[in-house]
Write a structure and sequence with these properties.
The structure holds two protein chains of two kinds.
Chain A: H1 2-54, H2 57-64, H3 66-72, H4 78-102, H5 110-148, H6 154-177, H7 181-206, H8 208-220
Chain B: H1 9-18, E1 23-29, H2 33-48, E2 56-62, H3 69-83, E3 93-99, H4 106-119, E4 124-127, H5 137-150, E5 154-159, H6 167-181, E6 193-195, H7 197-204, H8 214-228, E7 233-239, H9 252-269, H10 271-274, E8 284-286, H11 301-318, H12 324-334, H13 343-359, H14 364-386, H15 391-407, H16 409-419
Parallel strand pairs in B: 1-2, 1-4, 2-3, 5-7, 7-8
Antiparallel strand pairs in B: 4-6, 5-6
The chains are: A mainly alpha, B alpha/beta.
């Protein structure tokens, strides 16, 4: 009996040690991959920051309004954000490769999924950035035009324009990365249609007189002296 | 000679028939039938009186008017010829009306006129504005004589202005041009001028004619090009200037975008000239400035209200343009019933906008649009300060602003250089 127990214990320990022997190199491979990813991510992030610094990426971000968006969101300047994004994409890719190398059944194929997902993620990121830039540009243009047209609710008008564009952008981004696609599209269609209908009813029925008056005042003011009765030249 | 290639065959035939002349009076038109007749008559009267010993030609280039402008020019010329036959000058007086090449716009029209003046080997060129209803024969002589008899290359007009009149000129263009270019030109935005063919030929060689601002900001470019090019400049006092109201006149935001955009663009083009300059020299003036026409001063209250609303709503945009101290000053001014927008604050505002324009910190149309409420605040303050003031007091206030701009020149240069340009 004792021999049987000892034999079973020895067999179990032998198997365990065999598994450890087989698993340790995989752990080492994972650690090395994570370490390499970390170093490569740091290097590529650094290079990205430097290159963007040389091409005055931050100045372009200021011009397009992206820098203002980042400040509002309490994010770092554009070149540092781009560097950090590069670091995390590279590092995450290596981490997933490392996990893949461990050979766990449940997580096998993670890297392949990630590789397929990255292009969609990049496109979604581009859509998000461009959409936010466009919404910010449209907000500023609308705000300035409304202020100069002496529209009392200038900020409301400009804010509404920006909100609509941001919602549209977020919807397109989520649709791109495939998050709850049907729910997102349906919710957006219902919300957007409702807002447009509400505006049409408000302007067309509720405030048609106001719209006419505003147009008449605007057209009547286009003479040489302007509405202030002042010749600026 | 570059001129002939800019001229249509029809215009070229007319010009060759005219031959050499002493004075070319240029009149660019586009749907000016209502007002152009008076300008044409004034030019012909000048040919028959003040310039009767010179060979003269009135050259009207039209951008494709559909309201009978060309007929109005011809009719006015006939009337002038009929009524002034007895006083016909020694040499033949010509009148030419022709379309010009290119897109309708003052830049293209002026290029044609300069090319024609160069082709005719004129000694003096005078540009008139067909919109102006106060043109007299003395205007033509006043702008031409300093070129003909004293060898000046560029003659800018001087208009008699009532206190509070033309604030875009007196509060922004005049002091900024004076401080930057170092010459005390009173009307840098004037659409009238007298010049030599040397200056016209110089303008024709500049690579500016395809620039976007040329068709709406050519006037300030002509003035600043004369200053930056080292040409001999003079001024001619012409009296008051009245402009006919136009249905298609630009709104104030559009006007500021055009004028201030062109002015800042000129600063960029001429920065090698103006950045190292110091002080401001006087420009010789011919003629006596007449009395300004009395006018009811506009009510500053609507301007002040527009300023307050604009500063409140545009605060996040202005924060990206103005320095913190300037922004704080503007916000404090917006809290007053009548905005206290003194010279120092206005100068700091203009300097900040110029630097932001040069640095490309924000889209330029947005930048210039954001200036509108601040300009209205300054005008409200200026109107409140000069209402009831005598002409001498108003002139003193305008001179004070110019001196404030001159004192701020080093700061403008520092900020301009720091902005770097896009």
């Amino acid at each position: 009996m004792a021999d049987l127990i000892l034999e079973t214990l020895a067999e179990a320990w032998t198997k365990y040690l065999g598994t450890i022997r087989a698993f340790l190199p995989r752990v080492l491979a994972t650690v090395s991959l994570v370490l390499a990813g970390w170093l490569l991510g740091l290097l590529l992030g650094f290079v990205t920051r430097k290159v963007l610094g040389w091409v005055r990426f931050d100045a372009a971000a200021e011009r397009t309004g992206a820098a203002e968006l980042l400040r509002r969101a309490e994010l770092p300047p554009a070149h540092r954000l781009a560097g950090a994004t590069v670091f995390w994409v590279v590092f995450l890719g290596f981490v997933l490769s490392g996990i893949d190398a461990l050979g766990f059944r449940g997580v096998q194929g993670l890297m392949a999924d990630f590789t397929r997902f990255v292009p969609r993620l990049v496109v979604a990121f581009v859509v998000l950035v461009v959409g936010l830039l466009v919404s910010n540009f449209a907000w500023r243009a609308t705000l300035i035009a409304a202020v100069n047209a002496k529209l009392a609710p200038a900020r409301v008008v400009a804010g509404t324009v920006r909100l609509l564009l941001v919602v549209l952008t977020v919807t397109m981004t989520l649709e791109q990365i495939g998050v709850a696609r049907a729910v997102v599209l349906t919710a957006f269609a219902i919300a957007f249609g409702s807002v447009m209908l509400a505006i049409a009813i408000a302007v067309g029925v509720g405030a048609s007189g106001l719209a006419r008056r505003l147009l008449e005042e605007h057209l009547a003011s286009r003479d040489a002296k302007g509405p202030e009765g002042l010749s600026h030249l | 000679m570059k001129g002939p290639s800019l001229l249509s065959d029809e215009l070229l035939r007319h010009l060759m028939a005219v031959g050499q002349v002493d004075v070319v009076v240029g009149l660019p038109t586009l749907n000016h039938a209502a007002t152009v007749g008076g300008v044409v008559r004034a030019a012909h009267a000048a040919f028959a009186a003040g310039l009767k010993r010179e060979r003269t030609v009135l050259l009207n280039v039209d951008g494709g008017s559909t309201d009978g402008t060309a007929d109005a020019v011809r009719e006015a010329s006939l009337v002038a010829a009929e009524t002034l036959v007895a006083a016909q000058p020694l040499r033949t007086v010509h009148g030419i009306s022709a379309p010009y090449h290119g897109l309708p716009g003052k830049g293209a029209a002026l290029r044609t006129l300069f090319a024609a003046a160069e082709l005719l080997d004129a000694r003096a060129f005078v540009l008139l504005d067909p919109d102006v209803t106060s043109v007299t024969p003395e205007w033509v002589g006043g702008l031409a004589r300093p070129v003909l008899r004293e060898g000046f290359d560029y003659v800018a007009p001087v208009f008699s202005r009532a206190p509070g009149e033309g604030p875009l000129v007196t509060q922004l263009a005049r002091p900024l041009v004076r401080a930057a270019y170092g010459r005390r030109v009173l009307e840098p935005l004037a659409s009238e001028l007298g010049c030599s063919v040397r200056y016209a030929a110089h303008c024709l060689t500049q690579d500016v004619w395809s620039a976007p601002f040329v068709n709406y900001g050519i006037d300030v470019w002509l003035t600043t090009t004369a200053l930056a090019g080292g040409f001999r400049c003079a001024q001619a006092a012409l009296g008051p200037r009245r402009q006919a109201p136009r249905a298609q006149a630009p709104s104030l935001p559009e006007l500021l975008r055009q004028v201030v955009g062109a002015l800042f663009a000129c600063l960029e083009r001429h920065q090698a000239h103006w950045v190292p300059r110091e002080g401001a020299e006087a420009v010789e003036t011919r003629g006596e400035p007449g009395r300004a026409e009395a006018a009811d001063p506009p009510d500053p209250a609507p301007l002040a209200e527009a300023f307050r609303a604009g500063v409140r709503d545009l605060a996040p945009v202005l924060g990206g343009i103005l320095e913190p101290a300037t922004l704080e000053g503007v916000k404090a001014a917006a809290r007053d019933e009548v905005p206290a927008f003194p010279d120092a604050l206005w100068v700091a505002t203009v300097v900040d906008f110029a630097a932001a324009f040069h640095g490309g910190r924000i889209h330029r149309d947005h930048l210039l649009g954001s200036l509108v409420p601040l300009y209205l605040g300054r005008v409200a303050w200026h109107l409140a300060a000069t209402t009831g003031a005598d002409p001498a007091g108003a002139e003193e206030a305008r001179e004070g602003l110019c001196l404030e701009f001159e004192r701020a020149k080093p700061e403008l240069v520092r900020r301009w250089n720091a902005a770097g340009g896009r």
